């Protein structure tokens, strides 16, 4: 049994809360900057089986045709672009045919049930030509009780992403002078 769900990721937004010791002051939140409210967004399509033994490669849906972060290297996960960075029927069909079905065939020969919400972007006409996979749509306005990926998996993924992002910021801050010297060598004034 597999579950598929999408989630939005504001990949440039910094956390809006932090832990502050009482000795440092009474302030409990971070001072506001535009980086805290960055609206640059990706959609992640996530899919895994009930036991967690098979995690399908996530699909990134962004709005840029050629993102700057992939100019020197290829994306480590599948990436597609769409004007609003949403999953539409065309992107869903591509995920179904090029990512999901090959991963299922590689993982098992047994029958598979794919549980997912009935979002308008999910193409109900997609069917497995071999009959191995059956799609089961959740009822409308289904809560996270029925959506396994919403029961902490997506939240954990986003938390780990924020932690890695903040760790890389802290590492860059520690090497600030070294990075400034390198920048002067590359772009002399």
UniProtKB/TrEMBL annotation:
It comes from Daphnia pulex. InterPro entries: CenT-Element_Derived, DDE_SF_endonuclease_dom, RNaseH_sf. GO terms for molecular function: nucleic acid binding. Gene3D superfamilies: Ribonuclease H-like superfamily/Ribonuclease H. This is DDE-1 domain-containing protein. PANTHER family: PROTEIN PDC2, TRANSPOSON. Pfam families: DDE_1 (PF03184). Residues 39-174 form the DDE-1 domain.
């Amino acid at each position: 049994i597999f579950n598929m769900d999408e989630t939005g990721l504001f990949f440039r937004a910094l956390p809006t809360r932090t832990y502050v010791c009482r000795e440092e002051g009474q302030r409990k939140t971070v001072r506001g900057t535009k980086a805290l409210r960055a609206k640059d967004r990706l959609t992640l399509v996530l899919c895994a089986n009930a036991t967690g033994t098979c995690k399908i490669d996530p699909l990134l849906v962004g709005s840029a045709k050629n993102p700057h972060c992939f100019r020197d290297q290829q994306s480590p996960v599948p990436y597609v672009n769409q004007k609003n960075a949403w999953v539409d029927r065309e992107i869903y069909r591509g995920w179904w045919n090029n990512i999901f079905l090959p991963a299922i065939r590689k993982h098992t020969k047994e029958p598979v049930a794919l549980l997912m919400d009935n979002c308008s972007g999910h193409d109900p006409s997609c069917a497995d030509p071999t009959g191995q996979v059956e799609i089961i749509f959740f009822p409308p306005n289904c809560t996270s009780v029925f959506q396994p990926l919403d029961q902490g998996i997506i939240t954990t993924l986003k938390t780990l992403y924020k932690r890695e992002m903040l760790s890389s910021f802290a590492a860059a801050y520690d090497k600030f002078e070294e990075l400034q010297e390198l920048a002067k060598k590359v772009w002399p004034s």
